[in-house]
Amino acid sequence: MSGRAGEGLIGVLDYGAGNLGSVMNALARLGVPARFVRDPEELAGNETSPFAKLLFPGDGHFGTTMASLEKSGYAPAIRAWIQADRPFLGICIGLQVLFESSEEAPPVNGMPVRGLAVIRGRVKRFPGRKVPQIGWNRTEAREDSRLFQGLPPASFFYYIHSYYVSCEEDGAGVAEAEYYLRYCSAVEKGNLAAVQFHPEKSGAAGLRLLENWARS
Fold first, then answer.
1. How many structural domains comprise the chain?
2. CB-based contacts of 30-36 (< 8 A; 24+ apart in sequence)
3. Which of 177, 184, 185, 190 is nearest to 216 (CA)?
4. pTM of the model
5. What are the pLDDT digits (tens) for 185-213?
6. Per-residue DSSP letters for 169-216?
7. Which of 45, 63, 195, 208 is 20 to 30 A from residue 136's alpha carbon, by CA?
8. Which residues form the catalytic set?
9. How far is CA 105 from the centre of its chain?
């Protein structure tokens, strides 16, 4: 390994959400070096950060997650990381908070709960009665997607969510799934990528997607 210290190291964001162990286990299976981010300051600056890539995984409530990110100082650090076009992967809530707002978090005192707002669009609740969606679902990806390279055009991944993203940014959506309606299930924008499903729980297809991102 050459270059600056920490080159290739993935920082996994631990902001209090559960279920992060499966992500670390998946990265370990791939032989990819990773550790949890300890402080927002570790994300600052191309030369001082020990991380080459940032992974934002986890389940959670949009409003609670954003409140935690703002209180801890992670929100501005993540925005700056993405705005610098540094490699980023969001999983589940890590996708949803990239958008401007969510129906899961109604306005507080007349003020909207704002997401990281690095992608135009909103998070909406599925219109059907059977929510959350839990289980495997067919996911159709664009041929030019970097995340899905080497995978069939339609692969199955594991989902668990009650809300979906309505992406309003041209060209950002790279995959779709269907549950009551067709919706965007993965985005790419520069070095930013994010998925609604859980690749760490999606068998060989999920590991291939994680490897595509980690080694790109």
1. 1
2. 30/207, 30/210, 30/211, 30/214, 32/210, 32/211, 32/214, 32/215, 33/8, 33/9, 34/9, 34/10, 35/9, 35/10, 35/11, 36/11, 36/12
3. 190
4. 0.93
5. 999 999 999 999 999 999 999 999 999 99
6. STTTEEEEEEESEEEEEEEEETTEEEESS-GGGSHHHHHHHHHHHHT-
7. 63
8. 92, 198, 200
9. 18
Q: How many residues does the chain have?
A: 216
Query: Residue 44: inside a domain, yes or no?
Result: yes
Provide the 3-class DSSP secondary structure of residue 46. Answer: coil
CATH number of 182's domain: 3.40.50.880
Cβ burial 71-101 (10 Å sphere, 16+ → b, else e): eeebbebbeebbeeebbbbbbbbbbbbbbbb
- Residue 131, in any domain of the structure: yes
Q: What is the pLDDT of residue 5?
A: 35
Three-state SS at 134:
strand
**What whole-number distance in Å separates Cα of residue 212 and Cα of residue 126?**
30
Q: Can you tell me which residue has the tokens 């992500």?
A: 23
2 domain residue, yes or no:
no
In a domain, 3, yes or no: no
Q: Which residue has tokens 């790109």?
A: 216
User: The tokens of 81 are what?
Assistant: 């990381």
Quote the domain boundaries for residue 163: 10-214
61: Cβ contacts below 8 Å, ≥ 6 apart? 93, 104, 105
Residue of 95, 97, 92 whose CA lies nearest to 114: 97
Please name the residue that has the structure tokens 């050459």. Answer: 2
pLDDT tens column, 106-157 = 887 888 899 999 999 999 999 999 999 999 999 999 999 999 999 999 999 9
